[in-house]
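Quick note —
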Amino acid sequence: MSDRVKADILIVDRDPKTRADYRSWLEDEGYKVDDETDNGKFAFRLCNRKDYRLVITAISIEDWDGIDYIISNSLIDPKQKILVIDYLTEENIDALVQEPTVVGWLQKSATRGEPITKEEFLRSVKAALQ
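Predicted structure written out below.
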């Protein structure tokens, strides 16, 4: 029997304002955010202890490349659902497509010059949780 605890959502992003926005948007919709971090290694340790319903992560995170974090996390929990939100390159997308735990991604747009909207974010979260 697993010692991992059931949990709802983990947010992994290097920007504290982004993490706060995501948390606020999720909680406004009734979702429970259990944990957040800017650190890939810490997120990996959390995922070893808890069974998150969804992990929302960026690729650009502290202490560990996001793609490496996703691949490693997939090895410990192949059923984990991961939603990626970041400025994604073609190389990033090629890597994400190969990971069965990645249930979606949302492309931040450097050319638009604005962050993703609450509506885009929540639509992606709802799709990832289906």
